[in-house]
């Protein structure tokens, strides 16, 4: 590695006269991977010279290091090793401890940076034969599933295409999005599905019979291709949502023990399997089912709050901090702890873009509440200000 002279000098000051340096200056300098490697290289020099000779004194060590310096062919390398020698003679064993501290600091900065990143388009496709395919924005896919159906990459995700030839086979695929992922697919009937983070959708590669049935765990937005002869049914935890052709959102995360079905346009029927209750929704309405009792209630809502996630926005309408953090956890992938339980009930209202780094999102929430966030690696602790 070809280090600059001023970086070598800064490393010297960092190891020997740390108190003279400004904290922000040090933090900024250590963000560069090359700078951390420079400090490690200096430690490696010392270890090489002293390994196996614990009784070596400073004079001998300096002499041997000097010999190494004279072996170098360039003046630049001579300068570098000379400064390294002075560092070694001045700091002794302190070098090793400082290098470890700096390495830990660098690793912590990388962890913090990783947790701050928003989710991306990614998923795992599980096929009928047990094969798993990792999907992301760069993945190109073109697989002939059987003589009738193939699955291939589209502009946004994957699409199932049939040719109408040969024998119809009842085969199922499953699309799984991880925490910090979302994905889009077009089913064989032309229905479009936007799958949110930490969700699963099981579906046939080709719909057979008089119904089109899929199973959802998590959250998805559906744009159902109209087919008056074959209703489209979404099976969730203890309920069925039946449509002919419409756009709607189903949220089965159950963060608050409820399942939400929000209708954008068209018409849907919700059936509670636990008590047989049935409700029909019209546009702008939402069906809410209690997971434990199966009780269904219908209410009018601001639809935008429940569907804009697919357009890249979080819309929080006077939502508790607990429910907000659960949504953010699925998208940014972190753990959260509260200084005390009452903080979970604090409320926040606002609109946040899903492509923002998490530190900016937390800053927005912090600015309008009396809570603060301590971020360390992938753990966020919420405290009262």
TrEMBL record:
Transmembrane recorded as keyword: yes
Gene Ontology molecular functions: sigma factor antagonist activity
Xref: Pfam families: FecR, FecR_C
Membrane-spanning intervals of the chain: 78-96
InterPro entries noted in UniProt: FecR (IPR006860), FecR_C (IPR032508), Ferrdict_sens_TM (IPR012373)
Keywords, alphabetical: Membrane, Transmembrane, Transmembrane helix
Limits of the FecR protein domain: 174-269
Positions of the Protein FecR C-terminal domain: 313-382
UniProt keyword Transmembrane present: yes
Highest taxon above the source species: Bacteria
PANTHER family, alphabetized: PERIPLASMIC SIGNAL SENSOR AND SIGMA FACTOR ACTIVATOR FECR-RELATED, PROTEIN FECR
Protein name in UniProt: DUF4974 domain-containing protein
Organism in which the protein naturally occurs: Butyricimonas faecalis
